[in-house]
Write a structure and sequence with these properties.
Chains: A alpha/beta (331), B mainly alpha (199), C mainly alpha (206)
Radius of gyration of chain A: 23 Å
Largest sheet of chain C: none
Number of domains of chain C: 2
Number of strands of chain C: 0
Distance between the termini of chain A: 26 Å
Radius of gyration of chain C: 26 Å
Oligomer: heterotrimer
Order of helices and strands of chain A: HHHEHEHEHHEHEHHEHHEEH
Largest sheet of chain A: 6 strands, parallel
Strand content of chain C: under 5%
Helix content of chain C: over 70%
Number of domains of chain A: 2
Number of helices of chain C: 9
Distance between the termini of chain C: 12 Å
Strand order of the largest sheet of chain A: 3-2-1-4-5-6
Number of helices of chain A: 13
CATH class of the largest domain in chain A: Alpha Beta
Structural class of chain A: alpha/beta
Largest interface: B-C, 116 and 124 residues
Helix content of chain A: 40-55%
Shape of chain C: extended
Shape of chain A: globular
CATH topology of the largest domain in chain A: Rossmann fold
Strand content of chain A: 5-15%
Chain lengths: 331, 199, 206
């Protein structure tokens, strides 16, 4: 048996061991890496950012996934919530499946820890879990009156009495829905909220779903999209570079600029946010806790793992083609 | 202390599931069955509190809306699904919910077909828009089986296969990323939340 | 009675919903409100199906002392303990019910899916073969998209993420639009078949 034949018959557990090591080592020894921001992510960022400080504009985050895909979706949920808290953007959360409810509460708790001034019922509101039987009545009802359709929040308070509802009546105000899902759940929002009421819809999806959504991005049915852990890493960077930016001229963040995002990168090894660009380096005192860079740290391991998969495919093919029986030349 | 115990239990159960990678074993089977039980048990109180109380109990017994006894009885018919002679009764609640397809037909036609078609017919002003147009049309024709795929027509539909292969390749690339991300999440939990090795 | 009446219900409600979508009027809004209140009252009972099914499968295993019946006890016990804890102490933050979900269900569910990372790596080594020109194109597109997503790809060359985005925005978009349109037409056709009573498999067999 030559080396190629032996390679073909290797025990799968050795492959598993290599996979584990390729992920454990880069996580234990983190390193700075650059995150390339794509248009679907920056479009979503810009749309949300256009609501900054506006009384009559809000974002609705719909959680349509369970814990199985939390690794991909949780960092993007935290990043978007952080963006909203940083830029005083009204944000609502809702879910229609029981396992999503604790994930939604968890994402809110993790993001708001660093924003003690953001108050429930004033700056954000968790509508809580609503049974799936209410999906259509709520989605269609919000086209007329959000408070009437949803009735109560997760704490049992009447929505219409909450301060956050000043200026928020229907999809003209609750102008963007971001659905986080490992499925095609976002299409229910497109089919009912967008077709009937013209609401803006965006998706935060697991990477498995991402490639299928490109026709909907081009048609404008999705105003933006975050694709898996990469999308989360991109949004983390966007928030660091713009929403969390602080200086004398821009005490509450700065406006999005395609040149700045292309030129600037944020070293993730640092405990405080710092900006590295061709214009020079800026160090700030703004903390950069692990929870706001977990997707980017994860992407380091992702780099190594992708190379590993490509090497596996190449090695597997070399083994296959070298050990494949050659056709009998006498025939 | 509670956080440590919670993380410890979560970590042990995580390792029980990972143990399947070595081979099937009692620890994995225990965790697998525990997962099914807890998942189902979790839904029961939530559905009771968020659906049964507000939509059945409160309107009928507290607000006196006796009409709702009828749909409640229809809902109870679900139970007959598992009987040998009366399982046909469970078709009634299914049929009641299925009626909503009437609303879905025009709306899904609009969102999935008409808007996509409109965007496929954009003016061709660049090589990219030309490629998108050719790709979309050739794939649609590839799935049109009423005409044999022969000659020039066959060659054109063959172009669709190449576009699909690139599309499937993109999906495969993204799928690899997704699966690896899920593992990264668990390793981040074990090394970070549990062992405190990632700061 | 067994098949005809459910079919008549679907067809009647279906056409009323078509009318509701196209003809806005008070009658159509009243019809919709009525349907919603009834659908809401029916919906909680669907969960009984899941519970009964689980109890029947695992109960039979325990009763017959089938191989590995002990694990069925674990499933049923976990179900009962979780449900009872929710009824006894509520479902809010800090309750045993939520603790069970957060520290038992969530980590196990996430880990179960993370096993797929190992399987896809194993499949990459043992199964993904460039046996034909089409398969080779698929693998090359996959390589570029994979490298275009990760920081190391951008570090090697800025062309890698840009080419990956081009693949996603042009050939992938064309492919997915062609497929999505076909699927959309198929879904609409199936819905129409249900609406017209031609498609009846959802009612189950006799």
């Amino acid at each position: 048996m030559n080396i190629f034949q032996r390679m073909q018959n290797i025990d799968r557990r050795w492959i598993y061991l290599v996979v584990a090591l390729c992920i454990i080592i880069p996580l234990l020894i983190p390193f700075n890496s650059k995150t390339y921001v794509t248009d679907p992510s920056s479009n979503l960022y810009q749309k949300i950012d256009s609501f900054a400080g506006k009384e009559d504009k809000a974002v609705l985050l719909s959680f349509s996934h369970d814990a199985s895909t939390m690794a991909e979706l949780f960092p993007m949920e935290v990043s978007i919530l952080r963006h909203c808290f940083e830029r005083n953007i009204k944000v609502f959360t809702i879910c229609f499946s029981p396992p999503s409810a604790p994930l939604m509460a968890y994402a809110l708790n993790v993001a708001k820890e660093d924003y003690p001034n953001s108050q429930s019922g004033v700056d954000y509101c968790n509508f809580g879990y609503k049974p799936y039987g209410l999906f259509l009545p709520i989605v269609l009802g919000m086209g007329d009156d959000v408070a009437e359709a949803v009735q109560t929040d997760a704490d049992g308070r009447k929505i219409k009495n909450l301060e956050i509802m000043n200026g928020i009546r229907n999809y003209d105000d609750l102008n963007l829905i971001v659905d986080f899902a490992a499925s095609a759940a976002v299409f229910s929002w497109i089919t009912y909220a967008r077709v009937r009421f013209g609401a803006n819809v965006a998706a935060g999806v697991t990477a498995v779903m991402a490639a299928d959504n490109y026709p909907y991005l081009q048609s404008g049915q999705l105003v933006g999209m975050l694709s898996g852990l990469k999308g989360a890493a991109e949004y983390e960077k966007l928030v660091d570079v713009f929403a969390a930016y602080e200086d004398a001229d821009n005490p509450n963040g700065r406006k999005y600029s395609p040149e700045v995002i292309k030129d600037t990168w944020v070293p993730i090894m640092s405990k405080k946010i710092s900006y590295d660009s061709s214009q020079g380096n800026i160090d700030t005192d703004v903390p950069l806790p692990y929870k706001f860079k977990m997707a980017r740290i994860g992407m380091n391991a992702q780099s190594i793992a992708h190379i590993m998969i490509i090497v596996f495919i190449i090695l597997g093919n070399i083994g296959y083609f070298t050990t494949r029986k050659k056709p009998d030349e006498t025939i | 202390m509670l956080e440590f115990i919670s993380n410890l239990i979560a970590a042990i159960l995580t390792l029980f599931i990972f143990s399947f990678l070595y081979k099937d074993n009692p620890f994995y089977r225990f965790a697998e069955h525990l997962l099914v039980g807890v998942s189902m048990g979790y839904a029961i109180p939530l559905v009771y509190i968020n659906a049964f109380i507000p939509f059945v109990y409160r309107p009928i017994f507290l607000e006196g809306n006796l009409w709702l006894i009828i749909p409640s009885c229809i809902g109870i018919l679900y139970i007959f699904r598992f009987t040998r002679n009366l399982s046909w009764l469970s078709r009634y609640p299914i049929a009641f919910g299925m009626g909503i397809v009437g609303m879905g037909v025009p709306m899904s036609m609009h969102s999935s077909v008409l808007v996509q078609m409109r965007n496929a017919m954009r003016p061709i002003d660049s090589i990219n828009s030309f490629l998108i147009f050719i790709g979309t049309v050739s794939i649609l024709l590839y799935f049109y089986f009423s005409k044999p795929h022969k000659g020039l027509y066959g060659k054109f539909t063959n172009v669709g296969i190449w576009f699909m292969m690139v599309g499937f390749g993109a999906s495969f690339g993204y799928t690899v990323m997704a699966r690896i991300s899920l593992l990264i999440g668990r390793i981040q939990f074990l090394l970070g939340d549990f062992l405190g090795l990632i700061k | 009675m067994k098949r005809q009446i459910p079919l008549i219900i679907v067809i009647t409600l279906g056409f009323l919903f078509v009318a509701h979508t196209f003809i806005p009027s008070k009658a159509s809004v009243d019809f919709y409100d009525w349907w919603v209140s009834w659908a809401k009252a029916i919906s909680p009972f669907a969960v009984v199906l899941g519970i009964l099914s689980l109890f029947m499968v695992h109960g039979t295993k325990i009763q017959r002392k089938a191989p590995n019946w002990q694990y069925s006890v674990v499933t049923l016990l976990a179900l009962v303990v979780t449900a009872v804890s929710g009824f006894a102490w509520g479902t809010n933050e800090g309750t045993p019910f939520l603790w069970l979900f957060q520290n038992v269900q969530m980590p196990m569910s996430a880990t179960m899916f993370s096993l797929l990372a190992f399987y896809i790596a194993s499949a990459a080594y043992k199964a993904f073969r460039a046996k034909s020109p089409q398969a080779t194109v698929l693998l090359i597109a996959a390589f570029i998209v994979m490298m275009g997503q990760v920081p190391i790809g951008a570090a090697i060359s800025k062309w890698i993420p840009e080419t990956a985005q081009w693949i996603l925005n042009v050939p992938n978009l064309a492919a997915k639009r062609g497929i999505a349109t076909g699927v959309g037409l198929g879904m609409t056709a199936t819905s129409l078949k249900i609406l017209l009573g031609i498609e009846r498999t959802y009612l189950g067999s006799d």
